[in-house]
Amino acid sequence: MEWGMANRMAQLIQADGHCLFLPVDHGYFQGPTRKLEQPRKTLEPIMPYADALFITRGVLRSSVDPDNSKPIILRVSGGTSVIGKDLANEGLSTSMEEAIRLNVAAVGISIFVGSDYEKESLLNLAKLVDEGERYGIPVMAVTAVGKELEKRDARYLALCSRIAAELGARVVKTYWCQDFDKVTGGCPVPVVMAGGPKVNTEKEVFDFVHDGIQKGAVGVNLGRNIWQNEYPVAMIKALRAVIHEHASAEDAQRIYESPQNRGN
Fold this sequence. Notes:
By secondary structure, this protein is an alpha/beta fold. It has one domain (3-223): TIM Barrel. The protein is 42% helix and 15% strand. Strands 1-2-3-6-7-8-9-10 form an 8-stranded parallel β-barrel, surrounded by 6 helices. The chain has a two-stranded antiparallel sheet with strand order 4-5.
């Protein structure tokens, strides 16, 4: 692996082989998402505990100080919204030149396998990989499902993840699901978990994150489960323990419930 690419990958995936990515890119199609109305205010208390931020260029410039940041994964796909006809009809929204100008560690793009825009999104990924490899910038492919959340099963997500890797993605972000080892086992590049099924308690989040790590994920890319939580600092500390300190879900729950963590 060329030095620049290897260096950027090392910024993302830590020396222990794991990572905690913090996405705050939701506004690019959702607008002012709940508890992300003021990104700077949301980020400041929890950013120290993240390994990297997944973010758009606009929010990066407006809400993250360049002298107090984390490695950046730049969201570079978009062009649709929640009130449009089809979330899958995305294009490339940010150039590789802009990514270089912003000194990012990686770029991220969504793919929509099985949608009406499958071909376009996969060719977008292939084009982005060509540019990323030229400049030593890794591409993270996001196996998006649009509004069709029922597609979050191992067979479908394994298909999406493998296709992303085949097209050259250096990292794949996909949803946790039952039998998650079938997803990671068929993907020859690092896999990070997005959210899993809709859950009602923090313990259920810790359970699926712990399960995913045990079954081959290198880490997570979790946003709303952290910054929409009543105690976001306690939540990210607990997740970090699962990812980097081999904590169990029960250990994580105790960290989350600690008065010291909730008071920070």
